[in-house]
Design a protein that fits this description.
Chain A: One of its GO terms (molecular function) is electron transfer activity. Chain A: It comes from Anoxybacillus tengchongensis. Chain A: Keywords: Membrane, Transmembrane, Transmembrane helix. The complex is a heterodimer of chains A (about 350) and B (about 425). Chain A has about 350 residues and is mainly α. Chain A folds into two domains: about 20-170; about 185-335. Chain A has 13 helices and no strands. In chain A, helix 2 packs antiparallel against helix 6 and helix 10 runs antiparallel to helix 12 (about 265-290). The two termini of chain A are about 35 Å apart. Chain B has two domains: about 15-325, Formate dehydrogenase/DMSO reductase fold, CATH 1.20.1630; about 330-435, Cytochrome Bc1 Complex, Chain D, domain 2, CATH 1.10.760. Chain B contains 18 helices and two strands. Classes of the chains: A mainly alpha (about 350), B mainly alpha (about 425). Chains A and B meet through helix 3, helix 4 and helix 5 of A and helix 2, helix 3, strand 2 and helix 13 of B.
Amino acid sequence: MHILQLAIPPDFPLPIPGNLSLLEFLIVLTFILHIVFVNFTLSFATGAVALEGAGIVKKSKRLDDMARICSFHASIHKSIAVVLGVAPLLIISVIYTQYFYTSTLLIGKAWLSIIILLITAFLLLYLYKFSWEKWENKKGLHFFVGLVASVILLFIPLIFIVNIVSMLYPEKWASANGFFHSLIHYPQIWQRYAHFILASLAAGGFYMYFYFAWKQKKQPLSDVEQSLKMGGVKVTFWITLLQLLFGSLLLISFRRDIMLLFMGDDLLLTVLLLVSILLTIILCGLLYIVTKKDTPNVFYASVICFVLIVALMGWMRHEVRESYLQSYMDEHPRTLDVQKENVQPIK
Amino acid sequence: MDFPIVEFPWFGNGNIVALIAIIHVLISHGVAIGATAIVVSTEYYAMQTKNAKLDQLAKQLTKWIVIITTTVGAMTGVGIWLSTMVIQPDSIGSLLRIFFWAWVTEWVIFIGEVVLLLIYYYTWEKWKEGKEKQKHLNIGIALVVFSWLTMAIITGILAAKLTPGRWVETLSFWNAFFNPTYLPSLAFRTFLAVTLTISLFTIFVRIFVKDEDVRLSLFRIFSVWGAISLPATFIFGLWYLKSIPEQAAKLIVWSTGLPEQTFNVLNFIAFGLIVVFLSWLVIRPKKLPVVLALGMFISAIGFIGEFEVVRESIRKPYIIYNYMYVNGITAAKAEAMNRDGYLAHSTIAKVKTITEENKIEAGREIYEGQCLACHTIDGWRSKRALANRLQGWPQKSIESFIPTMHQVRPMMPPFVGTKEEVEALAAYLYKVVNEQN
């Protein structure tokens, strides 16, 4: 009865093609690369729409120019984000097949809708970018196109989050009923969503600071570019402060024994968490200094801090999954060597 | 049946994957591979002849390549994968285990392709003169090579589904990748891509490029490419056709759902059309009729649709030839399921032991696991709708047909399970068919 209720399928008889530790390292690395570009895309698309909207209300050309730069960056980064997403999806399919396939099929139709949603959002982003001048006198329509694209982009992460959270809870599969029900059925979903959206805004702000600080070395920045650079720093500073709160909310939404792993029960995980909090505080300090006095040293230090925080977050995220699945994986082992008797030709 | 079932009762599960795949092949071959080759050669020709207008046209075409490939192209590519996960998890899951590193390699090249494409388009105005222009062209050439390489890798995986060759015995990755139809299908696809680009793009060039001189220059480039690609597509297509298994070749006409004569006539007309079209492009490019270009555009889409449907269907009853049936059942599973029961070995089945009370429910679960991959109860494709196929059949006839169907209809996999399970399936089918009719 126990197994029937959990419905964790046996692994395929064909073996996992490669060293497990190597694949785990690669999934963390490639996921970080992917998600950072997703962060940029989301933040520039929503940022462009917000700035354009503010520009319309305040009748400000300057805000409109800032919005336009954001939209340009959004449409480039979205191409990279999609491409980079292939690798982590490939690896998660291969090393967590029994959990990930089931959680995907439980929300099968929502999962398929990603294709239509992303195509629509991406086409709208191009229309938004390429029609900026042409539709100068149809500002409302232009703003609406960007808004629809942004809303779609803000919705899609929910599908992915439901999927990867649901794979951690095989005991809840039997009582789940499709995508929308899953949004409230599984714990952590909204905490993860909030943490992710805020991370996107912070990453986007940081990118603006990074990009224009780099550009500044070659040529002086225009007024608008300078505003984006300093605006980026401010956004990142405030959002990162907020993340200390939202990160904690996510931590306490974990199952108690897993939360406690990060609070002393496991030395490595506890150290990872403490270091990441410390680095976050340092980053906030550095960003604060930037708002007062921008120097190359502060710039490099903040870049290092940012990269380290992102890396630690990606690593901890993986450890959370491993901790949740550990007991199930012991009971339903993965195929690491070929089971010759189960891989027979059909004659 | 180890994973939850997602059902598309009207559209049909197999059609979901087919639809996405057809769109993807049109774009990956016709836009990403063929069109980049043509655009880069156009840039080269414009550079040689110092034709600034032609250069600008190449840039315009590239803008559309960027827009189409990074939206519909990329997302349908990922989409084939997302949809097969939902529709055929056993098959795509097994393919990932076999070809993981091929996919990783393809991914790395694909990143290169996208980055090169973005650089190629966005530096057009920046790298305009002399050495910089040459650098720009080189980026374009690298782009053509990268986009072809992604196809060269994916073709290995696709071809292996029809002809896994020695892999079924050795389980060697290399045997699976360099399988018997790999080279012929890669050669065919390479030239098909260029032919497809010409067929798809001509109508847009004819209508939207107003400057006649520039249009004729581009048509000249199309003609040169077409003179190479059309005969090559034909010759390599024949080679490909000769290399597929005999059993599969027999299913080609059947796969299209057309009577043999109609199939022959349609394909002959289509071939005639493209010969006329290309000849026209060579001989009288100035007077190319819009109707002809439009006809070519439509029949190219039709041909790709036919090619994809046939390629997927002639594998039947397999999804990975000689290893896995279209419903995800392998030899080892079939053996265990015939012994202990299909439901007993299905992780998600709620019914494990069949009784009079749960018979219909058990039948439904067996239907979902073994039939749904190709059939619907009452979907739009009437040939696959059981309400149509089993209309008027008594329950006993359904029951006696099921264990022998794979002999009568070789494109169907054998039923696996016990005698009680056959009865349950027959009882369920009889019930739903009569409710529909």
